[in-house]
Amino acid sequence: MKETRFVVVDIETTGHSAQQDRIIQIGAVLVQDGEIIERFTSFVNPQMKIPPFIESLTGISDEMVALAPTFEQVIPELLQMLEGSYFVAHNVQFDLSFLQAQLDEVGYLPFQGPILDTVELSRLLLPNEESYKLQQLAESFNFQHDRPHQADSDAEVTALLLLKMIHKLEGLPLITLQKLKEITTRLKSDFDILLDPLISNKLTSFNEEDEQNFDIYRQIAIRKKKLEVSVEEEVLIAQPQLKSFVEDIFTNLGEMKKIFPNYTVRTGQLEMIEAVSDAYENRSHLLVEAGTGTGKSLGYLIPSVFYAKTFGRRVVVSTHTILLQQQLLDRDIPALKKMLPFTFKVALLKGRSHYLCLRKFEQKLQSHLDDNYDTLLSKGQILIWLTETTTGDVEELNLPSGGRSFWLEIQSEPNSCSGPQCPWFSRCFYQHAKKMAQKADVIITNHALLFTDVAQNHSIIPSYSQAVIDEAHHFEDVASNHLGVSTDFHQMAFLFNRLANSKESIFSLYEKCGQVPTIEKKALEMKIETCKFEIDELFRMLHSYVLKMKKSSTEVGRLSYRYCAPNEQGSLWQSILECGLRVHTFLKELNEQLQQYVQKLNDNIDDLSWENRGTITDFQGVTNDFEEMKQNIEQLLLEYDPNAVYWIEIEEKGAKNATYLFKKQVQLKETLADEFFTKKDSVILTSATLSVKESFSYFIERLGLEDFGPKSLMIPSPFDYSSQSKLYIPTDTFSINEEPDLFVSDTAEKIIRLAHVTKGRMLILFTSFKMLKETYQIIKDRMEEDEFYLIGQGINSGSRTKLIKTFKQSDQAILFGTSSFWEGIDIPGEDLSCLVIVRLPFSPPDDPVLQARSEHMKLEGKNPFMNLALPQAIIRFKQGVGRLIRSESDRGVIVVMDQRVTLTRYGKMFLQSIADVPVLKMNTNELLTDLKEWYRS
């Protein structure tokens, strides 16, 4: 690579159109022999006004370019620099298109050399980065980037990024580079000139030591796994008693501050350690509400590890979110290993679809049929990732949008696993995760896998009798989702697409083997087409039926209709049942035919290659999925369970077959009691929000724990909410029910006025996306240009994590969120100083599960509002309020726009749930005056 010249270019412009806008600054950096050897930068007079937005973004004004040279005067020096070089840029098409347009305008020939896009290169070589924006990459690698969106600074950082990625390429094994070359010939950048010298160099001067960290198998390089330390080699130190350990370590402030620099003694955490330990010893279940800042993770981890090591019995820790899993693994477990005077093992176990199937990936790597850009990029990313990952977990990957579809084709699945017969079995990521779990003292998993394990007769997670359920307020909902049944047209269409790809391989295999299938290919194709036609017809009729039954609905977005198959009336429903029966029959017949294809090949499987065996395994997996599809149709349309709720959802303005079917249990307490709690000695259920009116009775009843006599513990937050926070209730708001348009408009106006006092730094929580979108748009239209940075869930692209990161990095930002933003987000410090709750978070009254559970409660003589809807809303309200104060130094205010909190009898229960927070009721003008004074204090 010594001969190669790279000129890294960044161009600032007056806008985004290469034909209409003009260049205002050029920065260029020459990279050669692994270092920066020359720099060029110049402002350019665009001979037109710089728009205010561009001036705000770049900091470049009309005055700064007024005396600058024109493009025609500047370009000769840059062209000389570009002679015989790569043209490199971060999003190369943007910079190159402007350069080519202005070269043409002043009479020069276009640049004809090779190009390299560092966005594409970084996506390929840095597959686990959260963002590929230049500023985020600079932060990730600690590159100094003082002036983002100025050409010289951007070009410098891009050059450093290029050097880093070239260095990474040089460290890759030869086989990975060779595989990459096959893929990159069809990407946008000219990678050949980049890869060829590296490949040539490694071929001529091959050094085994360079590849000693890689396990090269079947022409794929993966990261070599470290040899496990045997039990005999573990450092064995006499294990102290938990009580004496806690007394020693938690009173030794000097030692604790080495591990936690801001450590202070938390009496609540010590209470929790003792309560969890007692529950394990007495084989009892325990509910712990631990307020924010309690340190509940260590509160349950310390006694769990002690119990596991003392009695040789593993403990399972289950969370609802991946974020908390990572927090446990990245922060709490390493801290605990520093604290404890003995070793212990922790393993992370996720659902099978999280893990890469190496056999499938190998086969897809060899096939180039229908590879689009995103699939090619995904293949390249995974090749690089395999040289780094020890887990094979997709959560480590930042795949392109189309790469998610590719992942579905290469993920590990029970139905397409050939077990020990697979050539990759000894290197299988999922099997490795299970093996680590078998050896672990503590297994970290998630609620979803916990219930998948229950549904599959406890065959996934290694046996355990002690469990910690963190984020336990989600436990019932996750159980309901994973013990229920659902299907939709897109899911079925995807399965037929998989069958189309898989059966062609099977037909080819029959030809290779010189065999004749039992069922003719033509007969199978006819059966498949008949099935597809009937399924399309079924989902179209279901779509029409919902429209008919909801013709006067005011719902926005998806329409939902709750049905009871035996009670539905009319000729259209009768046609649906008849079609459902035909679909069930045809799927049964199709599955039998597919099984015959598999069986005949299985009879001769010993004579086949691994690749052909893999083809059969994949086909068998598709066949098993068709059996599951048949069973789902049967449960959803042709059977009826009086303890279940059934409903249909449609996209009213979407495709006529865009239809979704659901079935969930109305009451889960008996299932949870019989299938989970009875089979465990101790289950610790913990969350920051488990109580209603200082009682755990709501959760105990919902989870079926009454007969177990669970113990409970309520640990208040150590934060001083009375001085750190305030809750305001404006008295001059409109009623959402009586004047919805005025309520939204007035709320938007109040948010703008609040934002001027708080300087943004606001999180606005909604209960509906429709209202979020309307409020966002009103604020955007009313505020001055770029006065505040508005970030809207579902409006700005990106995941929740990405939106929160953008919020933290932005000045005067306002974050609009619904659903998932009510909990699990952590924005400590001054980034968030004002939380606005637009409406009390009641579930929609037409939610099918809520309706069914309410009806069930009425039959039991209970009040569904007081015993179900209200407790759910209070717990969610507490979660929302908990977003504000995240540390002992945080200060902030909550503003509740919903007057029901003061005008209804039940409203005071919301305020009682956050008793330590001072509550002030006043009009908006008084509120803003008080708020200004409070911020000054």
TrEMBL record:
<dbReference type="InterPro" id="IPR006054">
    <property type="entry name" value="DnaQ"/>
</dbReference>
<keyword id="KW-0347">Helicase</keyword>
<keyword id="KW-0408">Iron</keyword>
<dbReference type="InterPro" id="IPR012337">
    <property type="entry name" value="RNaseH-like_sf"/>
</dbReference>
<dbReference type="InterPro" id="IPR036397">
    <property type="entry name" value="RNaseH_sf"/>
</dbReference>
<keyword id="KW-0540">Nuclease</keyword>
<feature type="binding site">
    <location>
        <begin position="290"/>
        <end position="297"/>
    </location>
    <ligand>
        <name>ATP</name>
    </ligand>
</feature>
<keyword id="KW-0067">ATP-binding</keyword>
<dbReference type="InterPro" id="IPR027417">
    <property type="entry name" value="P-loop_NTPase"/>
</dbReference>
<keyword id="KW-0175">Coiled coil</keyword>
<keyword id="KW-0479">Metal-binding</keyword>
<dbReference type="InterPro" id="IPR045028">
    <property type="entry name" value="DinG/Rad3-like"/>
</dbReference>
<dbReference type="InterPro" id="IPR006555">
    <property type="entry name" value="ATP-dep_Helicase_C"/>
</dbReference>
<dbReference type="InterPro" id="IPR010614">
    <property type="entry name" value="RAD3-like_helicase_DEAD"/>
</dbReference>
<dbReference type="Pfam" id="PF00929">
    <property type="entry name" value="RNase_T"/>
</dbReference>
<dbReference type="Pfam" id="PF13307">
    <property type="entry name" value="Helicase_C_2"/>
</dbReference>
<dbReference type="GO" id="GO:0003678">
    <property type="term" value="F:DNA helicase activity"/>
</dbReference>
<keyword id="KW-0269">Exonuclease</keyword>
<keyword id="KW-0547">Nucleotide-binding</keyword>
<keyword id="KW-0411">Iron-sulfur</keyword>
<keyword id="KW-0378">Hydrolase</keyword>
<keyword id="KW-0413">Isomerase</keyword>
<feature type="coiled-coil region">
    <location>
        <begin position="584"/>
        <end position="639"/>
    </location>
</feature>
<dbReference type="InterPro" id="IPR014013">
    <property type="entry name" value="Helic_SF1/SF2_ATP-bd_DinG/Rad3"/>
</dbReference>
<protein>
    <recommendedName>
        <fullName>3'-5' exonuclease DinG</fullName>
        <ecNumber>3.1.-.-</ecNumber>
    </recommendedName>
</protein>
<feature type="domain" description="Helicase ATP-binding">
    <location>
        <begin position="255"/>
        <end position="531"/>
    </location>
</feature>
<dbReference type="GO" id="GO:0016787">
    <property type="term" value="F:hydrolase activity"/>
</dbReference>
<dbReference type="InterPro" id="IPR006310">
    <property type="entry name" value="DinG"/>
</dbReference>
<comment type="similarity">
    <text>Belongs to the helicase family. DinG subfamily. Type 2 sub-subfamily.</text>
</comment>
<comment type="function">
    <text>3'-5' exonuclease.</text>
</comment>
<dbReference type="InterPro" id="IPR013520">
    <property type="entry name" value="Ribonucl_H"/>
</dbReference>
<dbReference type="InterPro" id="IPR014001">
    <property type="entry name" value="Helicase_ATP-bd"/>
</dbReference>
<dbReference type="Pfam" id="PF06733">
    <property type="entry name" value="DEAD_2"/>
</dbReference>
<feature type="short sequence motif" description="DEAH box">
    <location>
        <begin position="470"/>
        <end position="473"/>
    </location>
</feature>
<keyword id="KW-0238">DNA-binding</keyword>
